Hints:
The chain is α/β, with parallel strands linked by helices. The chain is 26% helix and 24% strand. It has helices spanning 3-21, 57-71, 94-101, 119-122, 126-130, 134-137, 183-200, 224-229, 231-236, and strands at residues 30-32, 41-46, 75-78, 113-115, 141-142, 148-152, 155-159, 205-209, 241-244, 250-254, 261-265, 282-287, 292-297, 301-307, 313-322, 327-330. The strands form two sheets. An eight-stranded mixed sheet has the order 1-6-7-8-9-11-10-12, covered by helices on one side. An eight-stranded mixed sheet has the order 5-4-3-2-13-14-15-16, with helices on one face. The site of one 2-acetamido-2-deoxy-beta-D-glucopyranose has 4 residues, from loops.
Amino acid sequence: MAPAELLLVVVVTAAAALLLAAPASAALPRVLHAPKADGTLAVLAVGDWGRRGQFNQTLVAQQMGEVGQKMDIDFVISTGDNIYDDGIANTSDPLFKESFSNIYTAKSLQKPWYLVLGNHDYTGNPLAQLDPAIRNVDSRYTAIAKSFIVNSGFADFFLVDTTPFILHYWNNTKFDWRGVAPRDTYITNILKDLEYALTESKAAWKIVVGHHPISSGCGHGNNTELEELLLPVLKAHGVDMYVNGHDHCLQRISSRDSHLQFLTSGGGSKAWAGKFKATPDKVEFLYDGQGFMSMRLSKTEAHLAFFDVAGNALHCWGLTKTAAAGRASLA
Ligand SMILES: *[C@@H]1O[C@H](CO)[C@@H](O)[C@H](O)[C@H]1NC(C)=O
Ligand SMILES: *[C@@H]1O[C@H](CO)[C@@H](O)[C@H](O)[C@H]1NC(C)=O
Ligand SMILES: *[C@@H]1O[C@H](CO)[C@@H](O)[C@H](O)[C@H]1NC(C)=O
Ligand SMILES: *[C@@H]1O[C@H](CO)[C@@H](O)[C@H](O)[C@H]1NC(C)=O
């Protein structure tokens, strides 16, 4: 056999073995969203919002519009609990327009929205939010799968479906686990797919988005399941930020043993719970009221801010990356 033929056989055999070894996992679906021509990317992140405008949802939306205009944002990320109390029933459920299309009306917000589902979306019909038909109702609404990647060149956003991780939800008959159960297989596959995607990622910034917090000083606090299962993957692969909702507050926490930042943007509507938990990580900023987060990224710098319902920048910070180390540090 000629050397070239031999090589081909070896490659084919290796590929077949890989397929057999990992039958149920697959590459996470991805959306390509190129950054601006000037090499920057501007994004807003909001969570826990869909309440027909109530609980200051409309005020948050207006300020997102203002800030979005100034920053010329490229897209919006939703950290989940998109529609209260129980998601939507189908793609023509009027709640969808009442809580999304009719609220985020500003010109600057007419960009793709990349979304994860929260526990409140799961007690309705979670598949309706993933159905491409929803984009006939509002073309912005882009949840192409329960977990997927938004690839923006120098930044990769890994959107992870965290609701199935939370054990006690599995005792609640309101949750719709179609396409999810059994839990163990589903979670094993998510973690495998995420590890693979993080390993393959060439992006300078690796940002993971989920609904539930890993480390939090607000009402819900830490999530044991995510601390045990998801956090080690994030640390092992040098993830820069974990962005979540679920706690209805704005919060920045620095990990004590890695460069990971835990960022909560869950102030899209109902807030002011007045409940706090202890976390031994370093709480850099915590606001119990409504608002959202902005980020402007370049290959070497990240500028982030939290805004309240009046458009005040409550907390601004920066991260820089040295190309050699590939690690972020506080600017
Ligand atoms: C709306 O926001 C204002 C300003 O933060 C706050 O005083 C008020 O309590 C909020 N309303 C609700 C329903 O949370
Ligand atoms: C969709 O859901 C709404 C709200 O529950 C309901 O009124 C409507 O009949 C449903 N439409 C279809 C086509 O099932
Ligand atoms: C789920 O329910 C079972 C039976 O009531 C109980 O033993 C178990 O502790 C519950 N699990 C969680 C995580 O709540
Ligand atoms: C909360 O999570 C963080 C990050 O894993 C951890 O350092 C801390 O010990 C946890 N705190 C509690 C009270 O579980």
